[in-house]
Amino acid sequence: MPGFPRLAPSYDIVVVGGGHAGLQAALKGALLQHSVALLDRGPKYSRSYYAPHMVNIPGFPDGVSGHRLLDQQIAAVRAHEDRIGYFTPAAVTSVEKTPDGFAVTFDWLKQTQVARGRAVVLAMGVVDRIPAVEGKIDTIFPWANQAIVDFCILCDGWDLVDRSVAVVGHDAFAARTVLDVLSFRPKSVELLTHGHPLLDGVPEPERSTLAATLAERGVPAVTTEMVGFDGIREKVFGVRFADGSHRTYDRGFSALGWYDMHDAIPRSLGCRFDADGYVVTDDDCRALADATGEPIPGLYCVGDQRNGWNQIPEAWATAERAVVHAWASYL
Fold first, then answer.
1. Homologous superfamily of the 11-126+261-330 domain (CATH)
2. What is the per-residue pLDDT across 30-79, written as a single tens digit (0 to 9) for each?
3. For 257-263, which contacts have Cβ atoms below 8 Å and span 24 or more sequence positions?
4. Cα separation, 76 vs 24, whole angstroms
5. Bridge-partner residues for 154, per DSSP?
6. How many CB atoms lie within 10 A of CB 78?
7. Distance between CA 193 and CA 256 in Å, rounded?
8. Pick from 272, 307, 277: nearest CA to 292
9. pTM of the model
10. What is the DSSP string of 213-244?
11. CA-based nearest residue to 8, from 111, 96, 99, 84
12. What is the mean pLDDT of residues 236-258?
């Protein structure tokens, strides 16, 4: 068992977040001979932690679970403990600009600590919104953990070919997700609005356009509230509705967007956000200032938290770009 790291007076890089992007940023910093503080709430906070089988990861032709992939990245980080202070579970509460860089305040081992760094890499990710069924969000977890309910079209769309699919959601994002699902040639698609009116709150003319497109593509909407699920043993997504009806699908797909985009810290630092709530960066993943549009010196944002595609290989690529830029042009 590794021992507890000691907090150094300062670091070259402080990485906030220990998912795939944060772990890669810390490793790359160490390989480039920089000192790194990695502040990680723990693997279970990574979006992929509960993913049972991912096939879009280079080097794993038979697929790999998110849990195993995180374990391997953590092992790579721990192999460089001479340069990486890996603090976990650590909850970051603030990041402040200082004359020499940044001060990152975090809670660790029931104490409040401050990690000081010349550069900061924000890698806090985003949190999926989970459908609440009779007041509980964990009702759907067994189906998600068995890859019967999916959350990422780019990761799992390939597995929807020739299957009956239930897309959960009611807004414009859900409608566009249905159209994305259709591109994978499923056997059928239905939209489960969970008691909400279809496209409720979507402004015109977008509402009419999406409604017409769904009708043209023959996608029905089930507007009755969901009250429970079954079929886990048969590896199907069975849905019970408040009116007593029941429907069975080969796959479920959640299209509810994000519950938390962890925007408080980047907003406090003056970052710019796009219309979807992601931190805007340049090609080197430097966070741009909302006031000027110019890069904020020493501040980077990588992975799902920045504007771009939400993919693990993309998370690794953004971590590489950020740390290489810091090595070559900032530190």
1. FAD/NAD(P)-binding domain (3.50.50.60)
2. 999 999 999 999 888 888 888 888 898 999 999 999 899 999 999 999 99
3. 257/129, 257/169, 257/171, 257/173, 258/126, 258/127, 258/128, 258/129, 259/127, 259/128, 259/129, 259/130, 260/126, 260/127, 261/126, 261/127, 261/305, 262/124, 262/125, 262/126, 262/127, 262/305
4. 9
5. none
6. 11
7. 10
8. 272
9. 0.93
10. HHHHTT--EE-SPEEEEE-TTTT-EEEEETTS
11. 84
12. 96
76 touches 28 (CB < 8 A):
no
User: What is the Cβ-side half-sphere exposure of residue 103, based on CA atoms within 13 angstroms?
Assistant: 10
Q: Could you tell me whether strands 127-128 and 258-260 are parallel, antiparallel, or unpaired per DSSP bridges? A: antiparallel
Fold of 129-254: FAD/NAD(P)-binding domain (3.50.50)
Give the count of beta carbons closer than 10 Å to the beta carbon of residue 260: 12
Give CATH 3.50.50.60 domain extents, the chain: 11-126+261-330, 129-254
Give me the residue label for tokens 């080097």.
59
Phi and psi (nearest 5°) for 111?
A: -135, 150
The kind and range of the H/E element at 165 are strand 164-168
Q: Which two tokens stand for residue 206?
A: 């977008």
329: tokens are 């042009």
Please report the pLDDT score of residue 1 as a whole number: 43
Tokens 């849990």 correspond to: 67
